[in-house]
Design goal:
heterodimer; A: mainly beta; seven-stranded mixed β-sheet; 51% strand; B: four-stranded antiparallel β-sheet; 53% strand
């Protein structure tokens, strides 16, 4: 049990729709990262938030956006869903930078049809 | 740019046999190295990490890894595997900047009785 919870666990959306995925980090963890894991691949870094500000972004288009809240919760929003957005979305939290352990949630499985 | 290569997509092994999962990385800066395990329908769990110091790192569940800077490798080993070790294993690197993790494609370890 990592203390990081994600909701929902599974989700089916239609192409073109918008989706919001949620993550509740461990208490005290001020950094949250989001990853996309396509089937049969390793996780790919989407972006990271530190104290409610985005401080790093991977190679994902602007229709992927996020928010981090003071209560250690965060959101990943994806607009104009495409079929290739179907994946497992993972959030990970940590308390500081510098190589400390990232604690992952169990993920949200998004299917776009 | 950093990258991680996991040399084997699948490793079949019999129970109680030793196993080595291979990982090579490329980076122009000092790195932190990690091995994560993912069980079906779950998130990622940290097995072990190398930040600095001794090149032989011991982790949970009897796993260990050796950092080899000259060969840019971080291979994972276990002297005797169990059925319960069947899972997907991911090697990851972080540059300690804003600490995004770059993952390899994963190695599927299948332990047979």
């Amino acid at each position: 049990e990592t203390g990081v919870t994600q909701s929902p666990t599974h989700l089916i959306k239609t192409r073109g729709q918008q989706v919001t995925l949620r993550c509740s980090s461990q208490s005290g963890h001020n950094t949250v990262s989001w990853y996309q894991q396509a089937l049969g691949q390793g996780p790919q870094f989407i972006f990271q938030y530190y104290r409610e500000e985005e401080n790093g972004r991977g190679n994902f288009p602007p229709r992927f956006s996020g928010l981090q809240f003071p209560n250690y919760s965060s959101e990943l929003n994806v607009n104009a869903l495409e079929l290739d957005d179907s994946a497992l979305y993972l959030c990970a939290s940590r308390d500081t930078g510098g190589g400390t352990e990232a604690f992952f949630g169990q993920g949200t499985r998004l299917t776009v049809v | 740019a950093q990258s991680v290569t996991q040399l084997d997509s699948q490793v079949p092994v019999f129970e109680e046999a030793p196993v080595e999962l291979r990982c090579n990385y490329s980076s122009s800066v000092s790195v932190y190295l990690f091995w994560y395990v993912q069980y079906p329908n779950q998130g990622l769990q940290l097995l072990l990490k190398y930040l600095s110091g001794s090149t032989l790192v011991k982790g949970i569940n009897g796993f260990e890894a050796e950092f080899n800077k000259s060969q840019t490798s971080f291979h994972l080993r276990k002297p005797s595997v169990h059925i319960s070790d069947t899972a997907e294993y991911f090697c990851a690197v972080s540059d300690g900047g804003y600490n995004k993790l770059i993952f390899g494609a994963g190695t599927r370890l299948a332990v047979h009785p």
